[in-house]
Amino acid sequence: MAKIIPFCGVMPRISPDAFIAEDAVIIGDVEIGPESSIWFGCVLRGDVNAIRIGRRTNIQDGTVIHVDSDKTGADYRESGGGHPTIIGDDVTVGHMALLHACVLEDRSFVGMRSAAMDRSVVSSGGMLAAGALLTPGKRIPAGQIWSGSPAKLFREMSEAEQAYIKTSADNYWTLAQKYM
Question: At 16, is the secondary structure helix, strand, or coil?
């Protein structure tokens, strides 16, 4: 059974129809939307700020999601300091990604073993390639693939590649239902 752990009195809130793998660890101020899936070996640590995951989003095996604290040491719920991690609807996050205090807009894609750092953004229809490092504050525009370390524009995406982002989310929800 997955470890669902409160932190400072805040319990994760998980939609009843989300799939949570039996060895996932979800801590504190985390919300997971309907038809989303958190796969094997994932850690979502919403201790010093919030993690929000939308509908029909898949967080694949071994991914770590964390947040940024208020640097004054104040409670973020009172001060509004630090940075949460916000992940929209129909997002695919590949195996062993690292997401830290970033934003993944609806229908964005993060490749395997990539990292998105503090205040970075992957726009709707954008892609962070496998193994890439999106450095703090950078934004991937819609319709672009960024790769490398540090990540830079690799190329524009085709319409088929952009459409595949939604297909990937749909496919992972179909797979998650078989596990449920």
Answer: coil
